[in-house]
């Protein structure tokens, strides 16, 4: 009896160990499709789906199509952990593009790392993300590479800038990371930080912070937060009379914020890791496809999510030439795929990219844009020189 049981157990184990890769090849997308973080997540879903359509139309992986499996992370850690667990153990994906927020990545990524499942972060920009583990990389350039560009641009617009106020969401890992870079850069540029104000990503009323900022007579306000909170903060700053420049961080880099701050979004300066005018053939194709479908330029979060899927497909293609993906053992493929991702070079809508030894993106060019509102709901990011 005992013997039969252990034999059964053994064969179950070896079955699990010998699990083949399913076709179409399943790639997990774990982004926020609900909650306030879906303001970013919606753009990521669009970008990922465009990649699936586009890359499958061009033969997928050596003739085998890919299939994206979506698991909604919602906006918190528990949601991201749950999505990752489902993708890893139930959907048997070869790897994961996700999650949306750095705050979620610090909780969910270690689970994939322990399971030896490659993760490509599509939008996590806090310091320390690729260092979570060997299986974690990202196509979203870190705050260290992005944030300083916005401040330099603000100084170009107004070289007389001297006194600044800094505000950040203290309950969000990305926002606290980004504000550190903003504050350091401000000091390096000889700006005088008159006040530092904290808020929560769940806040709606910013009277206290705005009053403190107005009391300092600053000529630049620097905000690190997510879309809903930052949108309301900008609106209240303007409504209560602030007239100077505003620099927003990566959490303000979505047109989903426009209906929240409305006309008050106008003029906000936001650094970009993607430009629709980037001249590579890969971007021309992506931007054309996106524009044909959505009648506007592709946003950064869509371009990065597209790039995440593309990196998986390009790396899979290399492995497929050695041995057809369907013949791989899933566990072995995940390990080999992670290695391949890290050594590859990719021609993407973000330009040509590769990864450093930690899995952080090595990207060539960055940009800065300024929001231009047409009316209370619609606007664009105008790229600056
Ligand atoms: N870049 C931020 C983060 O890493 C947000 C992502 C804005 C959508 O959390």
TrEMBL record:
Annotated protein name in UniProt: Branched-chain amino acid ABC transporter substrate-binding protein
Entries under InterPro entries matching the protein: BCAA_transport, Leu-bd, Leu_Ile_Val-bd, Peripla_BP_I
Keywords: Amino-acid transport, Signal, Transport
Lineage: Bacteria, Thermotogati, Deinococcota, Deinococci, Deinococcales
Native species: Deinococcus psychrotolerans
A biological process from GO: amino acid transport
Signal peptide: 1-22
Domain of life: Bacteria
Family in the record: Belongs to the leucine-binding protein family.
Residues covered by the Leucine-binding protein domain: 24-374
SUPFAM superfamilies hit by this protein: Periplasmic binding protein-like I
Pfam families in alphabetical order: Peripla_BP_6
């Amino acid at each position: 009896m005992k013997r039969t049981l252990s034999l059964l157990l053994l064969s179950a184990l070896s079955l699990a160990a010998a699990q083949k890769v399913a076709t179409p090849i399943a790639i997990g997308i774990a982004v926020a499709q609900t909650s306030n973080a879906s303001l970013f997540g919606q753009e990521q879903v669009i970008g990922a789906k465009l990649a699936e359509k586009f890359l499958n139309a061009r033969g997928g992986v050596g003739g085998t199509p890919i299939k994206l499996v979506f698991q909604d992370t919602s906006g918190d850690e528990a949601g991201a952990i749950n999505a990752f667990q489902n993708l890893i153990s139930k959907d048997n994906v070869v790897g994961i593009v996700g999650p949306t927020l750095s705050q979620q990545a610090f909780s969910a990524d270690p689970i994939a790392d322990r399971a030896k499942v490659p993760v490509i972060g599509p939008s996590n920009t806090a310091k320390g993300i690729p260092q979570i583990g060997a299986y974690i990389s990202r196509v979203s350039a870190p705050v260290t590479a992005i944030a300083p560009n916005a401040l330099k641009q603000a100084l170009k617009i107004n070289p007389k800038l001297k006194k600044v106020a800094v505000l950040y969401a203290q309950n969000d890992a990305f926002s606290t990371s980004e504000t550190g870079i903003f504050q350091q850069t401000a000091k390096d540029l000889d700006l005088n930080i008159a006040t530092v104000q904290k808020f929560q990503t769940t806040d709606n009323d910013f009277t206290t912070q705005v009053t403190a900022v107005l009391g300092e007579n600053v000529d630049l306000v620097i905000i690190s937060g997510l879309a809903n909170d930052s949108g309301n903060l900008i609106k209240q700053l303007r409504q209560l009379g602030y007239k100077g420049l505003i620099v927003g961080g990566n959490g303000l880099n979505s047109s989903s914020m426009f209906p929240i701050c409305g006309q008050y979004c106008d003029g906000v300066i936001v650094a970009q890791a993607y430009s629709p005018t980037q001249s590579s053939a890969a971007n021309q194709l992506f931007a054309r496809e996106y524009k044909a479908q959505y009648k506007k330029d592709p946003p950064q979060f869509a371009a990065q999510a597209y790039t995440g899927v593309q990196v998986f497909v390009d790396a899979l293609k290399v492995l497929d030439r050695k041995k057809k993906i369907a013949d791989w053992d899933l566990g072995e493929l995940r390990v080999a795929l992670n290695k391949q991702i890290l050594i590859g070079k990719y021609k993407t809508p973000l330009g040509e990219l590769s990864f450093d030894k930690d899995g952080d993106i090595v990207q060539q060019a960055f940009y800065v844009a300024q929001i231009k509102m047409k009316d209370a709901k619609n606007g664009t990011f105008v790229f600056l020189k």
